């Protein structure tokens, strides 16, 4: 049975029901239900939402194809091939394990994500309860985790987001619990979890940095624990992380000849620079090389890199609002205003705030966007719940026409009704043409032909080799295809055809079918004419 914990200091419980006026059936439901029942109900809701999204998913993610490719290599015993990818290895390894029970590779990857996504709900509840000191804000944070559109979508996709988010929440929770109980073993486990997070996504390398700095500087910043415990806890956290992460770090050193934290971050930075640089081909080629120096862009084109970082930082505010949702962003702002300086002076609140701030700023220096910021929004959900509660109280006191008052819980119902349609919209619907075209090729073509496209998902569903379509085939598309005799089909998007109209009118292509995208967009599948004899 879960027990309600108290904050480390004597401050009022920000999540205590007694701190708020009665909120009708909402307060009654939380008061009369046990914590176990609340958590199980919200976890069941998360499971139902994510299972629905898994079963209605129209198309695998672009990165998901690469994760499945790695998983197949691991399953075949080709460890060197799997580890040579730019992506971290743990998630594909888990897909390979799940494939023993689930024959479909895409479904196996989705179920791994779903498992972590569902587990994040009770983890967020426990963390919010420890940080904010009561069950109402913890329930609100967990409920938002269960139905949030981006979190639910990532939890039903072949992507690393769901697992990484769970590991971040678990590590922060273990540190908060360990500091409250002054237990270094809990901090050691948090370090282990941080190492696992790094093996899940490269940017996980920053998590032990923030945790270790927090533990070491805590006696000076808050005075809540002594220097002796700070030293033991910091050493435990760092040692545990090194224990888990060092084998992969050593492998990268042996494979590349350099000490690097991962291939993905360097590749992402150089690819981003390539989009803005006049020498884009050079940067794109560097992005896919075996070794990508993390600071190559800063050294070679410092002005362009600094401009990119500044623009990314400015745009991150918009991306953060979009990923958390505008309504919940307002609630977050209200919640932070309600807490005021306590967000910094209370160490248990300062830790999640520090992690969010660290990654918000740090990712702008590397590679950021809505998807990357989604990893850390759950750490703010306690304040979001506080803001929603404050707004509900304020609205409940407003007089409506006819001397009426807004019904208790109306704001919560309104937020749920505004959120759920976005959450339950089938994933990959606008990309369904990739799956349908792949199935068309699989039915019509003999094994051995390759699919030419800028997206590997068509070839994935066709069970065929993928050939990357150059931005400007030289000297033209038909002669380029002649140099690649295995090419049997070409898939073009409407944007690609608009950008280079001669592609779709090439003499060597015959239209097979047009597939809808969204709006006026579409995909065209072409068969390559006069196919040369297969080698």
Explain what you see.
- With 535 residues, the chain is an alpha/beta fold.
- Helix content is 64%, strand content 6%.
- It has 27 helices and seven strands.
- The protein has a five-stranded mixed sheet.
- A hairpin with a 3-residue loop joins strand 1 and strand 2.
- Helix 7 packs across helix 21.
Search tags:
single chain; 535 residues; alpha/beta; 7 strands; 64% helix; disordered N terminus; disordered C terminus
Biggest sheet: strands side by side, in what order? Answer: 4-3-5-7-6
- Helix-strand category: alpha/beta
Q: Beta-strand percentage?
A: 5-15%
Question: Helix amount, in percent?
Answer: 55-70%
Radius of gyration: 25 Å
Could you describe the largest sheet, including whether it forms a barrel?
5 strands, mixed
Report how far apart the termini are.
Answer: 67 Å
Count of strand segments: 7
Instruction: Give the uncertain stretches in residue-range form.
Output: 3-22, 531-535
- What integer is the average pLDDT? 88
Shape: globular
Number of helices: 27
Please outline what is shown here.
The chain has 535 residues and is α/β, with parallel strands linked by helices. It has 27 helices and seven strands.
Topology (SSEs and partners):
Elements lengths: L24 H8 L2 H21 L6 H14 L3 H5 L6 H9 L6 H28 L2 H13 L1 H6 L6 H21 L2 H17 L5 H16 L5 H30 L6 H14 L3 H8 L8 H5 L1 H23 L1 H14 L2 H4 L1 H19 L4 H4 L7 H16 L2 E2 L3 E2 L4 H14 L8 H13 L5 E4 L3 H6 L2 E4 L8 H6 L4 E7 H6 L1 H4 L4 E8 L5 E7 L7
Parallel strand pairs: 3-4, 3-5
Antiparallel strand pairs: 1-2, 5-7, 6-7
Helix pairs in contact: 2-6, 2-7, 3-5, 5-6, 6-7, 6-9, 7-21, 9-10, 10-12, 11-12, 11-19, 13-14, 16-17, 16-19, 17-21
